[in-house]
């Protein structure tokens, strides 16, 4: 399968080693995910939003083009082509203030464009998914908030935005979420075990 990974962390994809103040558990998850996918023979297409210097802010000109079912940001256009070619999409990012970072939100705003990634046949009617090759979407998140509070007090904001408010709204329902909480407070052995389990998850994708 052609697996597209959208990665969002300021330290970048290379920050997977356990070096204080230069490490990202999201990057470690990315590395583990790539190992699993590679060992299973999948093709990996990585979008590192920070490395690409993606601009998540939609300008007035971009919004006007969006309303006309067009995209004028060359990088967003490239991302759209890569989404269309994907059999599986994986999002990896930390949770900040209970939601995704700005880069990922901007990716959804600018890249998931009407008439290109989805279609709206009539106002108020269900959207139509135009990602015709897509077989599944996985979400890997890292957060400090305990699972119980995030799920039952805050109500899973990230899945409401990315799953219910984006993919399910387009009529796509094969979605999986893997959440990693309080990793900074865990031992190196515990963190390594989670990484190994993640690698095995994507061996059997």
TrEMBL record:
GO terms for molecular function: NAD(P)H dehydrogenase (quinone) activity. Keywords: Oxidoreductase. It comes from the Bacteria. GO terms for cellular component: cytosol. InterPro entries: Flavodoxin_fold, Flavoprotein-like_sf, NAD(P)H_dehydrogenase_qn. It holds the Pfam family Flavodoxin_2. Residues 1-199 form the Flavodoxin-like fold domain. Belongs to the NAD(P)H dehydrogenase (quinone) family. PANTHER family: NAD P H OXIDOREDUCTASE-RELATED, NAD(P)H DEHYDROGENASE [QUINONE] 1 ISOFORM 1. This is NAD(P)H dehydrogenase. It comes from Cohnella abietis.
